[in-house]
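Worked Example 4.2. Read the sequence first, then its structure tokens.
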Amino acid sequence: MTLLIYDGTFEGWLTAVFEIYEYKLQDVVFAKDEASNALLFSKTHITETDHTKANRVLKGLKQRLSINGITNMNHAFFSELPQIEESLFRFASYVFSSSTNIEGDLSNNDVLNIQKAAHLTGKESHRMKAFVRFKLTKDQLYYAIVEPDCNVLPLIEKHFKNRYADQRWLIYDTKRKYGIYYDLKSVSTVELTFDANPSSSKFLAEISDEDEEFFQSLWRNYFKNVNIESRKNTKLHVQHMPKRYWKNLIEKIPDIKK
């Protein structure tokens, strides 16, 4: 058994796939940056991301898969489901060993699992585009806190860059401890210590613009007034807006405090 350590990026994973074939590695288990105690006695192979190797693998996949197939692989990777890297590798191996497109072969467990993982990530990405709530700081930076089940920041970056091209913003993922920052020109990945507690009055007082609480109150009142009490359907509401998102939604914070 071989423990393959890579940097956790999709390009790093593609590089790892290249090196599995290059070095004829067997029974590979992927790990991000650090070895697993469960594999203490395994052979270890460390992969350094190499864009030339990654592009060669990606080119080979593109020759055998549709655009949707490549997108599914990318989305599946960001699902962060257990053993998703191993499932993706088996999927890629199936792709390379077949003379025909295998995307529709749902009898194959890895093909099916990649589709399921991609759907999960796509759904989470769609929700993030709807549930991100920006707040304004004193230095005119709009920031938002998210905690998605999947690593969707790389997938929603383009959407927010296009939609909010005229303002500086930061979307921070508290689960993964990193964010994406737009400086009016480009988007970059940032890592920082961030107090993301939405109920911390001291934190809000320190960083928020003086009019921020006023606008948040307006939004809460708007949200409350557009809801028709007689037509309230809590079950449907929670289905479309799961409670796990509520702690970062301005309109829901008063409900959490109760």
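Now turn to a second chain, presented in exactly the same format:
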Amino acid sequence: MYLNYFGLQTEPFSIAPDPTFLYMSERHQEALAHLSYGLQGSGGFILLTGEVGTGKTTVSRALLDQLSEETRTAFILNPMLNETELLATLCDEFGIRYAKRNITNKRLTDKLSEFLLAANAEGQQCVVLIDEAQHLRPQVLEQLRLLTNLETNQNKLLRVILIGQPELQDLLRRRELRQLAQRITARYHLLPLQASDTERYINYRLQVAGAQRALFDSNAIKKVHELSGGIPRRLNLLCDRALLAAYNDQVQTVTKAQIKTAARELGEHEQTQRRSSSPLAIAAGILVALCLGVALAAWQLVPASDAALPAAGSSNVQAQQPTSAGAQQGIRQLLQAWQLPQPPSNQPICEWVTDYQLGCAQARLRFDRIVALNLPALLQLADGSWQFIENAQMSPAETWTGEFLALWPLPPGYQLDDPNTYQNWLAKQLQRYRQSDADDLTRLAQTLQQEHGLPITAQLDAVTLAWLTSHHTTLGPRLEGGR
């Protein structure tokens, strides 16, 4: 209805998975890198999780497109199968012929084994991709694990990519699946789009559809990001309805008013949603625990070019999950901000969140320094409860003890076997403050602090690292009202 009015050739915000409109945000690209890394390793299982509509199918399609011609793939879209149906479906997907009468698990397994061995002899790799894998039965997952037992001295003959909602993580924690969980060599939890990616996403799809100008003003984009939480499917629904509202209002540009109209028609809530894409992210928190739990004094005596940068695993300060009723309410609010499910009761939250590419820190810090991190956080109160804060306008309760707990997105490559990705990233950020080859890290830190009005400590302390990461990374959006 609105195509001619806006000069469009096709619907820009259809929810159909049209590859013409494929937009790979930084998070989608990072998820793709993790999956590709998993296929290059020696393990049997690769895991991709994310909330409904975050773009898991987009990532899987991009992965299939970049696989080599030597890769044989089986794509299972309906996971509601028993063991026999799974084996038969794999045979069908790989083009393996078998007798349809009197089939048994053994006969099907034998056929698959022969096929996998022959494919390996020809230099081919076999990959199974299962969508909506949270619906798989434990017995079926165990059957998949048994199939991955086939291996040479160097490689598995079958790789399995499991794609599903966060509940899949919970399923794989079941005791009877612990052997399978240990075989997951790469995993990634796909978070919603950042605010900057939302704008690029909208404009990209409009351009592909034939738009010759911007059709959404900046306030409209901010509002649609807030209401959608950065989830692409919700973005498409809201933007499509907003264009229709603009057509009905006979205006040439979508404004905040049309976004609100679209939200009412779609039943979206008007209040700011506590989703990961809004309060999360600045990467200011990525390294904050380095100064809380890692000794940096050794850095100050060596040239930056030769400095031993912190290992990836050193930035996660382990904090025990609060257990009181008041604390649990705060934990629920904090996890809702990241769109995460509730953690198991017997596992510390700071250990559990690493499955979702998040780090964790619990420490004492001034409130203005916590605000500068631009992260949703919990403040511990004197009675043992925890106050949840998610924007710079909130104030701590009078009984705040000074203790806080916050989560942050880990830098790209953090959980891969190669820690140099993270170390090189940090070195690159500090490099811009080098004035001579003789500058050590003490000098670099002092230069940075002087240039940007930070407390002069000549150390890579919490405030300095927070500023550095929040101003020189795009790992996530910042809090509304934050810097």
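Notes for the reader: The first strand starts at residue 45 and ends at 50. The mean pLDDT is 76.
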